Amino acid sequence: MKFETKAIHFSQEPDKETGAVILPIHLSTTFYQEGPGNHKGFEYSRTLNPTRKVLEEVAASLEEGKFGLAFSSGTAANMAILSILLPGDEIISSSDIYGGTFRIFEKILRPLGINTKYVFTEKPEDFENQITEKTKMIWIETPSNPLLKIYDIEKISKVKQSKDIVFVVDNTFATPYFQKPLNLGADVVVYSSTKYLNGHSDVVGGLVILNDQEIRKKIRFYQNAAGGVPSPFDCFLVLRGLKTLAIRMEKHFENVKKVRDFLIKHKLVKKVYFPDIENDPVYKKQMTGFPGMISFEVDLDEKQIDTFMKSLKIITCAESLGGIESLICLPAKMTHATLGKEEREKRGIKDNLIRLSVGIENIEDIIQDLNEAFDKASK
Ligand SMILES: *Cc1c(COP(=O)(O)O)cnc(C)c1O
Question: Which of 89, 170, 187, 234 is the catalytic position?
Fold first, then answer.
């Protein structure tokens, strides 16, 4: 089965008893046992739930991976992966990462004696140079947030000198439709399914996909023991979102390219952050398209930026991304405020940087909205 077909049919045959074509939502927290310990694979819903099980299977199949594990948020999924580390272990992370992931590294792990070193370039050798015998994990996000840098997954996977180092790729932006990190050498793929996978801005969720049985055991243990599991209803919604992932991603891609063309030409736009998809060899090697994400620096002062954001009528000023609706944010004051100005500057996140998640509305409406807001802001 191909991607689009798996999203709709994999593990989702009509219900044997009722014929229901769409998977029921199993709300029961507990499951009948014919005798003590004799059950059908489900005991208690935190441990495993039939709706969650299908989501985990479908997500793994779309990734061409063996195992899927679902969580109550992308952050909970991150924590579950990081739970395999012990005090004294070290993480090497790309510098351009989700603000909340940076917060876990600095505010939760560092006080526990798990230190993170950051790599400020995309060069695989700069990752390699940071490796010590304490290194137990390499963590990247590609494309990254908010500067949309692309890291060479295959090359970075090869800098691991030992099998002890677990290579994690946050694939939230690309989704398995455009990029499959496990096939490129990653050990673990993590998602905030809050974003494109669910795609409708109505679920907070996370997913971990992997092939290695030993790592799976540890993360699966943490999933049950720490308990950050998604509700059956949320699993149902993500499963529903996945069914349209392919067509949504195609539309996001089509729209973002037109927004890029518009922004590049606009006189109030100083710099556009979007990969050179026509020429970049790394993009061409590992991605088959690009999500609706684009960032840009504007030639406007703080007050004018405020006017620009307030003047938008269709594009909504809000955190998050990857939904059907276009969302815009100012990372310095919103998603990346937690970093502080100094850390932001080190990472090249300026106060005039705007991040746009291009939705699947009609592209003419999106561009008209941007154009009119620029006019109002510059008056
Ligand atoms: C949103 C996001 C997360 C965190 O996920 P939550 O579902 O908000 O907990 C992690 N990584 C990336 C790239 C994200 O965009």
Answer: 170
